[in-house]
Amino acid sequence: MFIVNVEGAIYRNGKWLMITRSEKEEHAAGCLSMVGGKCDLEGVSSNILERTLKREIFEEVGIEVEDLTYVNSSSFVTDKGTHVIDIVFLCQDIAGEPYVKSAEEVGEVMWMTTEDILVHKNAPSYLKENITLAADKLTLVREV
Fold first, then answer.
1. How far apart are CA 92 and CA 84, in angstroms?
2. Which of 53, 55, 94, 142 is deepest in the core (most CB within 10 A)?
């Protein structure tokens, strides 16, 4: 059984919205991360991934996003042995200014270039891969 997690690669003015995960988080505490979270059980529903991502972003950093474009999916196992499927969406239309709305989940909010993320000491390898893929997707979306 998997937990399903969604993350937003949020892009504005040449930079990505990044957070430092709260030290209280079970997985990757203190690491650089995109904003996102787990899907809740809903029974029969539609657009659960997109709705979950929009809800999580608003709950954690207080902004609204639109124009979600699928980037990639992967799986991982947490330090406690929980299996997770992670789905990343590119988010381009943003309303509001992000801030630490949920201190239980977010330690800090910052805008960073792709290059800054790729060399950051607390950026996990999967984040670097996901941002690179999101940057590639952004280029494709803008060419259309």
1. 25
2. 53
CATH number at residue 12: 3.90.79.10
Contact 133, 88 (CB under 8 A): yes
Please give the tally of structural domains in the chain: 1
Domain that holds residue 106: 3-143
Find the distance separating the first CA and the last CA of the chain, reported in whole Å: 38
Give the torsion sign (CA, 89, 31, 123, 83).
negative
Using an 8 Å Cβ cutoff, are 86 and 108 in contact? no
Query: pLDDT tens across 42-99, in order?
Result: 888 899 999 999 999 999 999 999 889 999 999 988 888 999 999 999 998 788 999 9
